[in-house]
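Researcher: Can you fold this with zinc ion in place?
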Amino acid sequence: MNARAPKGTADMLPDVARAWEHMQRTAQRLFARYGYEPVYTPIFEHTEVFTRGIGEATDIVSKEMYTFEDKGGRSITLRPEGTASVVRATLEHNLVANGQSAKLYYAGPMFRYERPQKGRMRQFWQIGAEALGMAEPGIDAEVIVMLMRYFEELGIPRQNMRLLINTMGDENCRPAYRDKIAGFIREHSTALCEECNRRAETNPLRAFDCKNPGCKDVMSEAPLLRDELCDDCAAHYAAVKSSLDDLAISYIEDPSLVRGLDYYTRTVFEVQVDAGLGSQNAIGGGGRYDRLMEQYGGPATPGLGFALGFERTLLALEAAGVAILGHPVAEVYVARVDAALGGAVFALVQELRDAGIATETDYQGRSLKSQFKQADRLGARAVVIVGPDELAAGEVTMRDMTTKDESRIPLGEIAARLKQLLG
Ligand SMILES: [Zn+2]
Ligand SMILES: [Zn+2]
């Protein structure tokens, strides 16, 4: 058998898993201050949730989905992103019926069949937030600020990040603009790659984020949606920018920022970092999707949100020199002078754990010396030494691993003394 994890997946070993848990806890704490509640949707959905929502012509749907038929003959897809599922759930459970609004966040694995590279995996982990039922431009600014604050809270300095914003227009102004870009691509077809030429027919705006340098040059001359917005979209975009200004959040307007999904309308945004990520420099982003719920047969419901990638955020943190320290595996290590003291040690270890102290001990009959080595390796702040003479006197020896001081402590007081030492 092949005993390695499948290509594009990685085991999340304790150091990385601790970082993931830390990022989730930070999200819980911060997002709650903005009124967000947790939601868990299934890891797989009916395939239409993604084909309809994200769009047939997008790279995600046309090339990257893990789609299979289940034993009941249904077409099932592992979620490639979180928004479509959250909007589907919001509709199914009427969370925004009768003018209600909902603020939801999620964390978990997503799946895309892509060529694995640094910061890009086939199973990758995202944290995301969705605000449904609110059309006001102020909520766009709030969502963007929450994302920026999140990265800052984790320890990425604000000056390492770049916030890009753009508007995608809506059903009033985008179709004419799409046609215009399709025409532009046809006019410049010889200078553009094959893929971009195909995009003229399927998804012309995607030509703006073609990675081919020749295409980038040509597309930099293309007409900008910013100049073709309808009045409502122009007013919305202006209001979002002025709210960001009010909050002293600096941003760069990037008319080529189109995000790769069909459901976006109006505001889109992306947070990029320079260091640590190479060409995959976006650590998070999102936008507004005011028509998405209608794609599922629901009522017109405005919404917007963002998602941030765990792997890339971790790389950005490393590049910023931020270490996410986990708890030590053991705060206290109980060592024994000889194996015959196992029963007393076992009782003491349990007592300390019941007192709320992370406690570890030896289960392999190691020498005292190697028990101390293990205590060091586990990061223990103190070692409690259980020996026959001390036990006979109803005491143990406590060694402070920082100062190396040792003292004899009555058994009945050891838990309290350790808690005092651990602060
Ligand atoms: Zn191209
Ligand atoms: Zn418009």
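Model: Folded with zinc ion in place. The chain has two domains: 14-173+229-319, 332-422.
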